[in-house]
Design goal:
Blueprint: E1 7-10, E2 16-19, E3 27-31, E4 43-48, E5 55-61, E6 68-74, E7 77-82, E8 85-89, E9 94-99, E10 106-111, E11 117-126, E12 134-136, E13 139-144, E14 164-165
Antiparallel strand pairs: 1-2, 3-13, 4-5, 5-10, 6-9, 6-11, 7-8, 10-14, 11-12, 11-13
C-alpha cells in the first residue's frame, strides 16, 4: 500500500492491478519542510485509512539517527515563517518529544474512526549539521472522515490528539 492508499497486486501471470479505496487518503502533504544537515528535507508520510475499524501509519524518514524530534500538533494551521523556518501547525496544542531510530525514522500509528476531525502535524528535528542546528519535516493535514456508524461521535483514543508509537517492523514485515 502506498501513501495514497493504493494497493498494487500482481497475479501469477505478472499482470498488475491497482486497488484504489473509495475514501480519501489519511493525510495531505502540505510541504514547508526545512533541510537537514544532509541537504534533504525529512519526510513525514502516511499510509492506511482513518475510517472506522482501520488505522494509518505515519512515518518520519530522512532524519539523523538517534536524533531528538518533537512532533507539533494543532487543530488549525497557519504558516509561521521566521528564524525557525516555516511551521504549519498554528500554536501547537500538543508537542511530543521522541527519538529517531538507527535509520533516522519514527513510526506512529493512529486509529481510525471518530471523525470528522482534522489535525495539522509537523516534526522539528535536532540536527547539529543543519542550519540553526535543526530541520523541519514537511507538514501534513490529517483528516478522519465522518463516522458511518451510529453511536458515540468519539471513539476512545481515536481523536484525542494522542499518537501511539509501535515497534518498527523490519523490511521483511516481522
Amino acid at each position: 500500500q502506498d501513501a495514497d492508499g493504493e494497493i498494487l497486486v500482481v497475479d501469477r501471470g505478472g499482470e498488475v492491478f491497482r486497488i484504489i479505496p473509495d475514501v480519501a487518503p489519511p493525510a495531505v502533504d502540505l510541504g514547508f519542510g526545512k533541510p537537514g544537515g544532509n541537504g534533504a528535507i525529512p519526510e513525514l508520510s502516511a499510509c492506511g485509512l482513518l475510517t472506522e475499524g482501520n488505522e494509518a501509519v505515519f512515518r518520519l524518514s530522512g532524519a539523523p539517527p538517534h536524533a531528538r524530534a518533537t512532533l507539533l500538533v494543532s487543530n488549525s494551521s497557519i504558516v509561521e515563517t521566521g528564524h525557525e523556518g516555516e511551521i504549519v501547525p498554528a500554536r501547537p496544542r500538543l508537542s511530543r518529544k521522541m527519538t529517531t531510530d538507527e535509520s533516522g525514522e519514527i513510526e506512529l500509528v493512529l486509529p481510525g474512526g471518530g471523525g470528522p476531525r482534522t489535525l495539522y502535524v509537523q516534526f522539528r528535528i535536532e540536527d547539529r549539521r543543519a542550519e540553526r542546528r535543526f530541520s523541519l519535516s514537511n507538514a501534513l493535514r490529517i483528516s478522519w472522515p465522518e463516522s458511518s456508524e451510529a453511536g458515540p461521535r468519539t471513539a476512545p483514543g481515536a481523536t484525542d490528539g494522542r499518537f501511539s508509537s509501535r515497534p518498527r517492523r523490519d523490511r521483511s514485515g516481522r
